[in-house]
Design brief:
By secondary structure, the chain is mainly α. Helices cover 78% and strands 3% of the residues. Strands 1-3-2 form a 3-stranded antiparallel beta sheet.
Length: 313
């Protein structure tokens, strides 16, 4: 039992620390790119929101859970518990919505010129911001009921009909209300996941057709087309990872919501799955963005150097 607890402590600590460092590094890359004059793509704004929501998930879920794993209890009050649970769920929803938007807008970006989606390409820069704002608004409203049922452990000590999560507790509502809440929240997740998988499948189909079309002229493929292909492949890897972790998390969350008792190992497994994507997401994106930043900086340097050489002559 002691070795199992130690493994749990090390896992939660590593997951939280590495996730926060990775997401912070990705944000720093974007900040540096702004000062170097690299032109930002519309989808970069979505990645920034995805990164911020991932940091929020790790702050509001990873840190409290890590402290609980190390034996710290009763360190959150009633109001703090309500905030922690609420903003964790909001950040999780924004992470899901941002990944869906990223997938959809990338699909529109790589759509062929004769496609019905091609006419939306020029509108992407204008609709990315409002789409993200709508995503945040939906999640803030969807989870507004969470503070009603959330409280600190001391307030419900030795009480019945309460589920404890290590550092906070959730008061069980009537069974019918609990089931309706779970169905409503699951519908929210499934809707975004469905949108994400539809866009992903469409991108895979476009990439296959594109590869067949340019196979014989691969050496003459334009750099921009190559960058878009690599960006699409990175997003597809990101989405695949997201779907695996979140489907497992949804199943575990649904099961924990309908059972009357709480199993510690099952709760830990659910927490680990829900934080895996926010922790690993930046490392999937960093490889792509660092190479793009490096390429853009090199091109910018060569352009400046050539311009200086022309002025000297």
């Amino acid at each position: 039992m002691a070795s199992r607890d130690l493994a749990t402590e090390i896992f939660f600590l590593s997951q939280t620390v590495l996730g926060i460092l990775g997401n912070s590094t990705l944000l720093c890359c974007f900040i540096i790119s702004n000062f170097t004059g690299i032109k930002a793509k519309p989808t970069d704004l979505i990645v920034k929101h995805l990164t911020c929501s991932s940091i929020m998930v790790l702050l509001f879920k990873g840190i409290p859970q890590t402290m609980t794993a190390f034996g710290q209890t009763y360190f959150l009050g009633d109001f703090t518990c309500k905030l922690v649970f609420y903003f964790h769920r909001v950040a999780r929803g924004v992470s899901l919505g941002s990944t869906s938007l990223l997938c959809v807008f990338q699909f529109i970006t790589i759509s062929p010129g004769n496609s019905k989606w091609a006419q939306l390409k020029v509108r992407i820069p204008r609709i990315v911001g409002p789409s993200l704002g709508l995503c945040w608004t939906i999640q803030l409203l969807v989870y507004v009921f969470i503070p009603i049922y959330t409280t600190d452990i001391l307030s419900v000590k030795n009480a019945t009909g309460v589920k404890e999560f290590g550092y906070c507790a959730v008061v069980n509502s009537r069974r019918i209300i609990s089931i309706l809440n779970v169905v409503f929240l699951t519908f929210n997740d499934v809707m975004f996941l469905g949108l994400m998988m539809w866009a992903s499948g469409s991108m895979v189909f476009i990439l296959i057709k594109h590869k067949q079309r340019v196979k014989h002229i691969y050496r003459t493929l334009s750099p921009r087309s190559s960058l878009e292909t690599r960006a699409t492949q990175s997003i597809l890897i990101l989405v695949s990872t997201f779907v695996v972790f979140y489907v497992i998390s949804i199943v575990l969350t649904f099961y924990l919501s309908v059972i009357d008792v709480t199993f510690r190992w099952l709760t830990n497994a659910n927490l680990a799955m829900s934080a895996c994507f926010p922790a690993f997401c930046p490392f999937l994106l960093l490889r792509h963005y660092i190479s793009v930043f490096r390429l853009c900086c090199a091109c910018s340097y060569q352009t400046t150097h050539c311009a200086c050489g022309v002025r000297e002559h």
